[in-house]
Amino acid sequence: MDKTNKLLNIMLKEKIVSRSAIVENERSTAIRDLITENRFELVDKKFKGPYALVFSIDDLGQKINADVKNEQGDKIYKFIISLKPFRRLIKDYTHICESYYNAMRTLPASKIETIDMARRGIHNEGADLLQKVVESNVKIDYETSRRLFTLITVMHIK
């Protein structure tokens, strides 16, 4: 299997120390799924993978710093993701996820399915936007984009 255009590791540098079990599960699942299967290719062809990706939020909470490292752990590339276009989506996605998890405890399956469809729709919208925002720096496939959007959202949950 070609590992050239792959992430072998992803790390979130965050100030948040603890989260709910549900949010922690979302984070760990997204990271596990990303490492298992992803497409991540820097547009700048002078840097070859496989890569490690480190996400951190700037002090003002306005941007995600994305540090790309090689297999040896050397930082080889950096790009910044402005969170401004994601604000509404992050808020909506967080809210709909809370509704979904609450509904799972009390509502019938038909109602849960409706909420889940809305949740997936917002998630897809976030993934589409992320692909567009990072396209000048990195090429990612749709599933990679979905999982990275999940991580960006998780980094905002207090």
Structure notes:
The structure is a single chain. With 158 residues, this protein is an alpha+beta fold. It contains four helices and six strands, in the order βαββββααβα. The chain has one domain. It is 47% helix and 22% strand. The N and C termini lie far apart (38 Å). 22% of the residues are buried.
Strand-helix topology:
Layout: E1 7-13, H1 21-36, E2 40-42, E3 51-57, E4 63-69, E5 75-82, H2 87-106, H3 109-134, E6 138-140, H4 142-154
Parallel strand pairs: 1-3
Antiparallel strand pairs: 2-6, 3-4, 4-5
Helix pairs in contact: 1-4, 2-3, 3-4
Task: Please summarize what this structure is.
The chain is an alpha+beta fold and 158 residues long. It has one domain (7-154).
Keywords:
alpha+beta; 158 residues; two-stranded antiparallel ribbon
Categorize the overall geometry: globular
Averaging pLDDT over every residue, what do you get? 91
Low-confidence runs of at least 5 consecutive residues: none
Give the number of DSSP strands.
Answer: 6
Summarize the helix and strand pattern as letters.
Answer: EHEEEEHHEH
| Oligomeric state of the chains in view | single chain
CA distance, first residue to last residue: 38 Å
- Tally of distinct domains: 1
What fraction of the residues are assigned to beta strands by DSSP? 15-25%
If helices are DSSP runs of H or I spanning 4 or more residues, what is the number of helices?
4
Structural class: alpha+beta
Helix content: 40-55%
